[in-house]
Amino acid sequence: MLKDFITIHDLTTYEFNEILDLAQKIKEKPDKFRTYLQGKILAMIFQKPSLRTRVTFEVGMLQLGGEAIYLAPTDIQLGTRETPTDVAKNLERWVDGIMARTFAHSIVVELAEAARIPVVNALTDLLHPCQAMADFLTLKEKKGDLAQLKLAYVGDGNNVCHSLMLAAAKAGTHLVVATPEGYEPQEAIINQAQADGQASGFTLELTHDPAAAVKEADAVYTDVWASMGQEHEKEQRAKIFAPYQVNKELMAQAKPEALFMHCLPAHRGEEVTSEVIDSPQSVVFDQAENRLHVQKAILSLLMRQEKSV
Ligand code: CP
Ligand code: NVA
Fold first, then answer.
1. Which residues constitute the domain of residue 199?
2. How many domains does the chain have?
3. Which residue's CA lies nearest to atom 2 of ligand 1?
4. Ligand 2: nearest atom to the Cα of 123
5. Residue 257 resides in a domain
6. For residue 250, how far is its CA from the centre of ligand 1 (angstroms)?
7. From ligand 2's centre to the CA of 29, what distance in Å?
8. For each of the chain's 309 residues, which pLDDT tens digit applies?
């Protein structure tokens, strides 16, 4: 296993599956893992707000026998009060791991390069890898063989979309991404996914047509139209993204048993209607639950002294 968990692109297919398999074991028999990280302490750095990430990392550490320290945006003021490198070089003297949610992706990369202890990416403007691992665990549980599935992502080509692309590439999932013009995923991530997916049977389609994207899909995924840090674009984006709302009519064009997925928080009436997110097809709270199990697996693989688990 790697020293850090920054992007799914860095994982081998073996490591990608190892995380999913261990997460499944931890979910089935949490008691077996109660002392896995006994005495270990995780520092959690947040530049942005969070419900799921904060609670699941903290609960995860406690359930593994360790502890977590929450560092709020105002506490350390990464990059203004102190450089990420200096923060890393302090934290490594006191704690056993760092989890970071930042604006610039380069900050998480800098923390990982500077620290001798593991660093976990808990969302940057570019990527949200823990979310994608939880999403693929959810897909696997609900639908089985990931290589046989068609996943449709409808909305903004953002951090969540990028990490889903990289996960789909490892898993061999057929992914169709429908965005408005000008909101496509980044070229660099498309290239990484294409390269990673060479061996797995992964296929990626990019379109501006949401109805075409969801046709025959096993799961339909969306995310907010304005991510954290883009609040000032909210009104302009609401107009541009309106045709990309996941509503009953759009879901009707996917397979009848298609899942609805969302990383949450959701803005009901914007990217998704209440009718869809509250429907039996919706697995959004299973995704949220699985954040806990996959992150416990990631933390165990990175922070446990005995590297084989
Ligand atoms: N999905 C997710 O990361 O949620 P939070 O922003 O609440 O952590
Ligand atoms: N794309 C969203 C995800 C939130 C979990 C954001 O970055 O705000």
1. 132-288
2. 2
3. 52
4. 7
5. yes
6. 25
7. 30
8. 689 999 999 999 999 999 999 999 999 999 999 999 999 999 999 999 999 999 999 999 999 999 999 999 998 888 889 999 999 999 999 999 999 999 999 999 999 999 999 999 999 999 999 999 999 999 999 999 999 999 999 999 999 999 999 999 999 999 999 999 999 999 999 999 999 999 999 999 999 999 999 999 999 999 999 999 999 999 999 999 999 999 999 999 999 999 999 999 999 999 999 999 999 999 999 999 999 999 999 999 999 975 555
- Of the candidates 69, 109, 111, which has an alpha carbon nearest to the alpha carbon of residue 88? 111
CA distance 15 to 229: 32
Q: Hunting for tokens 């696997």 — which residue is that?
A: 140
Residue 38: which H helix or E strand, with range? Answer: none
Q: How many CB atoms lie within 10 A of CB 29?
A: 9
State the CB neighbour count (10 A cutoff) for residue 134. 27
The DSSP H or E segment spanning 7 is none
Quote the tokens at residue 151. 């996943």
In a domain, 211, yes or no: yes
Q: How far is the CA of 226 from the centre of ligand 2 (A)?
A: 8
Same domain, 140 and 284: yes
- Which member of 52, 101, 162, 174 is catalytic? 101
